[in-house]
């Protein structure tokens, strides 16, 4: 059986993984309130990227003082930026609402990655549909 889970992030170089994770921290920290859902998704995304445990500690330490978005963006290639954009929207959505500061970061990422408004809108819709799909599992399990 072929793998049904394919994500380009598993093949990122470690320096790209670090920049990718830094962007997730920047988004989560943007509204000034880190919630457990944001921390959980960042941990999951770092795991998905096969980030080295010591590097994870470094990234966690950035939660109090995130790096400059422009500096991080300048070090990443367009493929990493596009995957970071997709996952940044996930991080921003996980607490149930998009803060204006999170949206500003997402728009900056989209511009840097060469993603147009139509594509960006499609990503937001994909995230919404994904959360709905995920929540259906609770109904299937009789948990809602």
Helix content: 55-70%
Structural class: mainly alpha
Number of domains: 1
From the N-terminal CA to the C-terminal CA, the straight-line distance is 33 Å
- Tally the beta strands: 0
Q: Give the strand content.
A: under 5%
CATH topology: TerB-like
CATH architecture: Orthogonal Bundle
What overall form do the CA principal axes indicate? globular
Please give the count of helices: 7
Mean pLDDT score, rounded? 93
CATH superfamily: TerB-like
H-E order: HHHHHHH
Q: What does the main sheet amount to?
A: none
- CATH domain class: Mainly Alpha
Please give the radius of gyration in angstroms: 15 Å
Uncertain spans, ≥5 residues at pLDDT below 50?
Answer: none
Short description:
With 144 residues, the chain is mainly α. The chain has seven helices and no strands. It is globular and about 45 Å long.
């Amino acid at each position: 059986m072929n793998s049904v889970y394919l994500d380009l992030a598993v093949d990122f170089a470690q320096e790209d993984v670090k920049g990718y994770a830094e962007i997730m921290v920047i988004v989560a920290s943007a509204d000034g309130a880190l919630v457990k859902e944001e921390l959980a998704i960042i941990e999951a995304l770092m795991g998905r990227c096969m980030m080295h445990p010591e590097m994870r500690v470094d990234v966690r330490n950035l939660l109090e003082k995130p790096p400059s978005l422009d500096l991080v963006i300048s070090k990443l290639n367009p493929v990493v930026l596009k995957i970071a954009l997709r996952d940044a929207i996930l991080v921003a959505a996980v607490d149930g609402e998009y803060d204006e500061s999170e949206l500003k970061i997402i728009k900056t990422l989209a511009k840097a990655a060469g993603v147009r408004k139509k594509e960006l809108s499609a990503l937001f819709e994909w995230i919404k549909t994904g959360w709905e799909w995920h929540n259906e599992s609770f109904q299937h399990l009789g948990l809602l």
